[in-house]
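Write out this protein's structure.
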Amino acid sequence: MTLRLYNSFSSQKEDFKPLQDNHVGIYVCGITAYDDCHLGHARAAVVFDVIIRYLRHRGFEVTHVQNITDIDDKIINRAREKGVSCKELSEHYTGEFHRDMESLGVARPDVEPRATGHIQNIIRLIETLVSKGYAYAAEGNVFFSVEKFPAYGRLSHRSPEEMQAGARVKIDPQKHHPMDFALWKAGKPGEPAWESPWGPGRPGWHIECSAMSIRYLGETFDIHGGGQDLIFPHHENEIAQSVAATGKPFVRYFVHNGFVTINGEKMSKSLGNFLTIKEILFGYHPEALRLFLLSKHYRSPLDYSEDLIREKQVSLDRIYATLGEALEITAAPPGKRPGASATGVSLPPEAEAACARIKDLKKLFYQAMDDDFNTAQALGHVFDALKGINTLLQISKMEPARACLDAIGSGVSAIREVGQVLGLFATEPGVYLQKRRTEKLRKIPLPEKEISDLIRQREEARIKKDWAAADAIRKKLAGANIILKDSPQGTTWEIKE
């Protein structure tokens, strides 16, 4: 199946054909380093991490470039508030960003350029735009003239007049048109500035991405990514200044991920619903957050709630428990498996269906991912395969057969292979489950030894048919979020989320 992706240029899915047969150049807009990263940053980071993982998994060589904006109005204002330099502030939050991404399992880009390290590239690009008549200087500033670029608005599918009508644009007397945007900003006292042909100043926000993407990927490259909030004005302006400067197409495919809300409302510090990555990962495993972020198609809106992330954490725990049990059974010597591993044993119909689910996983996974990176559908196929493994695990305890155990083993291998693409199931199940158990134990009011003692006392009460005492112990443990599970092999317990 041919990989198809939704192109914001055409507003439809298109077959993906990179400029070079086996190489993909992708530029993803990075952070402005003035604050901790939030849930919206996490979604964009995980979405494009998976896209890049999948492209590489399918055999493409990928050059991933992602910038760091380390000079900007927000950085200048925040540095002034904190009484530190812009460099000190941006370095601090760049480091925090890297730590957040490492926690989430997001791979570093191949190239991570910073705006302040490419001032000369930016100046040369602006000089080209001025010499071609697409930009003009005004009192130390340089503006791009949108009226000189007839295709302006192609990405957002609006004309400059429509954009102006729908935006709160402060009228600047220096501009020829209200929608003209700054390429270079004249220096102000106390702000960082670099020498330029127009006097001391600093780059505008939009021009840095054009200069750096052209520097590392060429004048035309394959994929440009970012959130839907960047379509206008950022990516619209990138297209205008890049095409005007080079006379060539800028990007072949624009890919944008959807917005994130919290409990149905837009994230906002004023509403008190602004969640940082660190805050979420304080209470949940990073893979639970990845599982949540990938549970909807990347272009769809995604609503965060405590109930949803808790649900994903429970799902992740169950997945690791299934993988752990499957590995334990398939790795055990024949004599120590739950029953003799027989050959020639006919499997019940439900086993045949389970084997089919497992066998089809990779094919169905690729079909979903080839259809515009549909991680929601891909995860659905993973869960189907896990159901198949669980079915076979139960059957193998009653009617063990070599075919059954082989199917379980191949299912685990397939899930772990596709899990690498999604950035999931990367920990050995035993290590994961022990760590989770330790974390849960910290949250309950009873020490583990007391739990074991109470279970033993309950068992003694049951032997004596003292049902009232046994029920009282069960209720006491339930009050501490300890759930008991009785079986012919004895009583086990788990912690309720």
